[in-house]
Design a protein that fits this description.
Layout (H helix, E strand, L loop, with lengths): L5 H35 L5 H33 E6 L3 E7 L13 H10 L4 E3 L5 E3 L2 E7 L4 E6 L13 H12 L8 H4 L3 E6 L2 E5 L18 H4 L22 E10 L5 E9 L12 E7 L2 H9 L5 E3 L3 H10 L2 E16 L9 H9 L3 H8 L27 H10 L4 E3 L2 E4 L2 E2 L1 E7 L2 H16 L3 E7 L8 H6 L6 E7 L7 H4 L17 H10 L5 H18 L2 E14 L27 E6 L3
Parallel strand pairs: 2-11, 2-12, 17-18, 17-19
Antiparallel strand pairs: 1-21, 3-4, 5-6, 6-8, 7-8, 9-10, 10-11, 12-20, 13-19, 13-20, 14-15, 15-16
Helix pairs in contact: 9-11, 10-12, 15-16
Length: 600
């Protein structure tokens, strides 16, 4: 078949091109016609619908406002603001941070860090009762001389190593080495710790000692870190600044921070311990700020430098409470504030003078001078530890007090002060510098002045390096009356404070109290495991204590905790053996808040 020639192809091309151009022109004409008809031709009609358009836009705006308002109003029915995991909790305390080795902790700040960083065999719950930590239980054997303790198998150190019975044995042996220089040495030197198996340890005592389980709250050391360290360099070892831990938190670093007043304070930065056997805490980080005194602590809380403050004086807490910006919680502890009488002093060696002060002091008034709502402490024990039965405290009776002073030979008055052999009845009252103690001392001085007793008050500043409470006041017993806190603990064993053997320079019997009946009762009570027998012994001691009047109980100590609104941490109504027991549920503390859906 013949192929078309080139002229024919050119003709076809020109023909098709002409058709396309013609159709394009036709489409252009129609487009212009439609635009003129439906757009430009009707533009003037928009004026007729402007009113309707405005009404439509207003209606849409109102509808949007209603929907938004409904969202915010009804949101509370299906969501709420609540604490959520995460965030950084910043708590302030008073005291120095020098060593993080629990064998050497002394200040409140160091004791707080010990609880946050280390585990122990036993600890205390929010009611003050002994509860298991690393231990799972104990059994009493050998007539009360041996305690067999079993431990859990899932505890770990922050470096992932397992915490075992070997760590516990190592800790006890370290405490018992004189070269280590631990303050716990005297309490443990005669105790033998023996490993029975991987999860069992025997503690053998030289004699029966009923309160011993409460001694098992010591912090445990990591053997794999310290086993090759010479005992005499424990304090200087790197572990004291960068410890491997087993508690809910691990240490990141310690920072020295300058304050607005030019005073520096130290901050321990902690992170949650992912190896903690109870599970990682809800807080991501924890900061413990250590301040030199209560004034700086209160200022740091007021300026939001910290979220919470522990250990504020009651007077400072009252000032913060008035602002309405903080939660103020006062939970009782197993300690008490006493007016301790030096029973070997010139004036107070006479029992009738001590009894006169006992009966002539309105303790409720002295207590209320510090703060309202404080719990009384009428005995050498915390209320509830020993049933007092029919033992009654000598009642407040000014007339009887004056009679006792007359019988003691202080019948003459000169300038309102009682005299005996030309010497005034003057008492030197010593106390640590504290607003609370100063208030109670001022009240006592006023009350005793009405009895004809002159009180000269002296305060000792613990932050003044030229003043030493221990060496210049306590050890030489350089006072007639000492306003002081006695830490009683979870067990009513108060042997250390009232037994005659402890009335020595380094002993804790600050009254130099010595009575055979009282001492025998105390020694016998601590050796009894039967509760009824122990109570009978302590009741015998209490009767003698009231009769001899070596002290006046003023009020039970309170752990004051102030925090900003929105924190979920310390709860009201808890009871602590010591203030550090506030951390018994620190793994559940929270600081962050967010909107969360309500559970149906």
């Amino acid at each position: 078949m013949a192929q078309p020639d080139g002229n024919w192809q050119r003709f076809q091309y020109i023909r098709k091109t002409s058709e396309i151009i013609a159709r394009a022109r036709q489409a252009e004409q129609r487009t212009a016609q439609h635009a003129n008809t439906f757009l430009f031709g009707r533009w003037h009609n928009t004026k007729q619908v402007r009113h309707h358009m405005a009404l439509w836009l207003i209606g849409v705006g109102i509808l949007i406002i209603i929907v938004v308002a409904q969202f915010f109003v009804l949101r509370g029915t299906y969501s709420t603001r609540a604490a959520v995991p995460g965030g950084t909790y910043a708590e302030g305390v008073v005291g120095r941070i020098e060593s993080l080795n629990p064998l050497y902790t002394s200040s409140g700040a160091e004791q707080s860090l010990t609880r946050l960083l280390f585990s122990s065999l036993f600890t205390y719950d929010s009611t003050g009762a002994l509860q298991s930590d690393i231990a799972t239980g104990y059994k009493l054997q050998n007539d009360g001389k041996r305690y067999r303790v079993s431990i859990r198998t899932d505890a770990q150190w922050s470096d992932g190593q397992k915490l075992t019975a070997d760590d516990i044995i190592f800790t006890i042996n370290a405490i018992k080495r004189p070269a280590v220089g631990s303050p716990l040495y005297a309490s443990w030197r005669d105790v033998t710790a023996t490993k029975v198996d991987a999860t069992t340890i025997d503690f053998t005592l030289p004699a029966a000692y009923a309160p011993f389980p409460h001694a098992l709250t010591f912090a445990i050391l990591p053997k794999h870190i310290l086993q090759d360290v010479a005992p005499n360099v424990y304090r200087e070892h790197d572990f004291s600044q960068h410890p491997t831990t087993s508690g809910p938190f691990a240490l990141r670093y310690i920072q020295t921070v300058p304050g607005s007043d030019g005073q520096r304070h130290r901050v321990a930065h902690l992170v949650r311990n992912s190896h903690y056997y109870r599970g990682a805490p809800k807080l991501e980080r924890f900061q413990l700020h250590a301040y030199r005194d209560a004034n700086r602590l209160a200022e740091a809380l007021a300026t939001r430098e910290i979220n919470a403050a522990s250990g504020l004086p009651l007077s400072k807490a009252a000032e913060l409470d008035k602002t309405g910006s903080f939660n103020i919680i006062k939970n009782t502890t197993n300690a008490g504030i006493y007016a301790l009488f030096n029973t070997t002093g010139d004036a107070l060696q006479h029992a009738k003078v001590r009894q006169a002060l006992q009966r002539g002091t309105n303790v409720a008034a002295a207590r209320n001078a510090v703060a309202t709502g404080l719990q009384p402490i009428d005995t050498p024990f915390v209320r509830g530890q020993v049933p007092t039965g029919d033992i009654n405290k000598p009642s407040y009776n000014v007339q009887e007090a004056n009679k006792l002073l007359d019988e003691a030979g202080y019948s003459e008055r000169r300038g309102g002060v009682r005299m005996k052999n030309q010497r005034p009845l003057q008492l030197r009252v010593v106390l640590l510098k504290s607003t609370d103690y100063e208030k109670v001392a001022a009240n006592l001085r006023k009350q005793w002045a009405a009895l004809g007793v002159q009180a000269v008050v002296r305060t000792v500043d613990p932050n003044d390096p030229t003043q030493s409470m221990a060496s210049s006041v306590l050890q030489p017993r350089d006072y007639d009356v000492l306003i002081h806190e006695l830490t009683i603990g979870a067990d009513p064993d108060v042997y250390a404070y009232w037994h005659s053997s402890q009335a020595v320079a380094r002993g804790l019997n600050f009254t130099n109290y010595s009575n055979g009946v009282a001492s025998d009762a105390l020694a016998s009570a601590r050796a009894r495991s039967d509760g009824n027998l122990r109570n009978a012994k302590y009741q015998s001691f209490l009767r003698q204590w009231y009769k001899d009047a070596p002290a006046i109980g003023l009020y039970q100590s309170a752990a004051v905790y102030a925090s900003t609104k929105g924190t979920t941490a310390v709860q009201p109504g808890e009871h602590y053996v010591a203030a550090q027991d506030r951390y018994n549920n620190v793994a559940g503390w929270m600081i962050k808040t967010a909107d969360v859906y309500r559970t149906p």
